[in-house]
Amino acid sequence: MAKAPKKSAKTAANASSKTSTSDDFALSALQDAHIKAGAYDASDEEKLALYEQMLLIRRFEEKAGQLYGLGLIGGFCHLYIGQEAVAIGLQSALNNDRDSVITGYRDHGHMLAYGIDPNVIMAELTGRQAGISKGKGGSMHMFSTEHKFYGGHGIVGAQVSLGGGLALAHKYKEDGGLCLAYFGDGAANQGQVYETFNMAALWNLPIVFVVENNQYAMGTAVTRSSAETEFYRRGAAFRIPGMDVDGMDVLQVRGAAEIAFEHVRGGNGPVLIECNTYRYRGHSMSDPAKYRSREEVQEKRDTQDPIEGMKKMLMESGTSEADLKALDKAIRARVAASADFAETSPEPEPSELYTDILVEKY
Ligand SMILES: Cc1ncc(C[n+]2csc(CCOP(=O)(O)OP(=O)(O)O)c2C)c(N)n1
Ligand SMILES: [Mg+2]
User: Fold this and answer.
1) Three-state secondary structure call for residue 350
2) Residue that wins the pLDDT comparison between 24 and 209
3) Of 28, 42, 65, 145, whose CA is between 20 and 30 Å from 285?
C-alpha cells in the first residue's frame, strides 16, 4: 500500500518559513489565501452543474471501459475515474473564449470538462471518421483548436513545455488568455518541466501548472519515485508560488482556481497547483493494478469520492434523491447515445492515411 504523503507536516513547515523573508511570503501567499478562502461558495444551481459535469465524466469513462472490454476501442485507454473534481473544478473557472488547455494522455475528462461533445470523443476512441482527430489519434491524441484544447499528449511531460509555448503565445498576442497545463506526479520528475518553469517565471508567462497527483505513475507510488512528494513546492526554486489543493473536493479545487487565475490574469506570472487526487482504475485498461490493495482503493472511494461528496452536499441543501436519480438516468442516456453514435459511424476512408501528415518541406 502506498504511504500517504504526510500532509499535516507541511502546514507547520510553511508556517515556519513564512516569516523568514518577504520573498518566502510571496511564494506562499497564494497558498495562504487558499487556506483562508477555503471552498468556493457555490450556489445550489452551480453545485448541481458541477455535479452533473463530474457525473458525465464518470459515466462516459465507465462506458469507454466497457467498449474497450468489447474490443471496440483499440490501443491504450487511460481512464479519469476518481479524478473528476480536478478538471471540473479548474475548467469551470476558465474563460473558454480566451484560455487554452493542454494535458497528457489521460485526456477524455478534460475534453468533457471543456464542453466538447461526447459523441466526437467516443467516436475518436473507437477510431471513427467522425472522431475529433478523424479517428486517427485515439484515446491519447485528441485535439480541438476550435475549443483551444491542445491535446492529448503521449510523451510524459512534453505537454508542459508546449503549454509554456501556448502561454507565450497568449502573452505575445495580448489576447488576455492563460494556459492551463496539466501533468502527473510521474511527469513532475521530468527535466523539461523545470526548464519550462524557469522560462515561464523569467518571462512572466500567463500559465497555471497543475500537478494531478493521483499517487501513482503507472505502478510506482509517489513515495517510491519522488524525493519531494509535496509537488506544490517544486516551483519555489523558480519563484513560482505553489498551492496545495484537495483534488477530491470540487469546491476546494474551484476555490483554488479562482485565486490562481486572478493572480495569473493580473500579470503576475505562473502558479503551480498540486491537486491531490486518486485514480480508481489501473494506469490504463491493460493494467491489473497489482501494486496496490483493493482495500486501499475501496477506502478512497468510500471516504473521499468527489461525486458522492457533492451528492451528499446537494441532498443536505434540499435536492431530492429522485431528482438526482433522474439526472443520472439522463446522463447515462447521453453517454449511451454517444456510444451508439460511435459504433454506427463509419471508419475513416483509406485515403485519410495521406491527410494531416507532413510530406513536404516546411
Ligand atoms: C517520455 C516518456 N517516458 C515514459 C513514458 C511511459 N509512461 C507512460 S505513462 C507513464 C507514467 C506517468 O505517470 P504520471 O505522470 O503520474 O501520470 P498518470 O498516468 O498518473 O496520470 C510513463 C512512465 C512515456 N509515455 N513518455
Ligand atoms: Mg500519477
Assistant:
1) helix
2) 209
3) 145
Write down the pTM of the prediction: 0.93
Does 5 reside within a domain? Answer: no
Mean pLDDT of all residues in the chain? 93
Query: Do the beta carbons of residue 114 and residue 147 sit within 8 Å?
Result: yes
Query: Looking at the chain, how many residues does it have?
Result: 362
| 123 three-state secondary structure | helix
The SS3 assignment for 294 reads: helix
- CB count within 10 Å of CB 12 equals 9
82 close to ligand 1 (CB < 6 Angstrom): no
Region 266-291: what's the mean pLDDT? 96
Residue nearest to atom 2 of ligand 1 (CA): 156
Per-residue pLDDT of 126-165, as tens digits, reads 999 999 999 999 999 999 999 999 999 999 999 999 999 9
Q: Any idea what the CATH number is for the domain that residue 144 is in?
A: 3.40.50.970
Q: Ligand 1 pocket check: which of 76, 86, 156 to mutate, most ligand atoms within 8 Å of Cβ?
A: 156
pLDDT in tens, 13-31: 444 444 567 778 789 999 9
337: closest CA among 96, 117, 156, 40? 117
CB–CB of 47/314 below 8 Å? yes
Name the residue with cell 443536505: 316
Residue 250: predicted pLDDT: 98
Instruction: Find the ligand nearest to 283 CA.
Output: 1
Give the whole-angstrom CA distance, residue 184 versus residue 223: 14
Burial 246-264, CB ≥16 within 10 A → b, else e: bbbbbbbbbbbbbbbbebb
The position carrying cell 467522425 is: 130
Residue 105 lies in a domain: yes
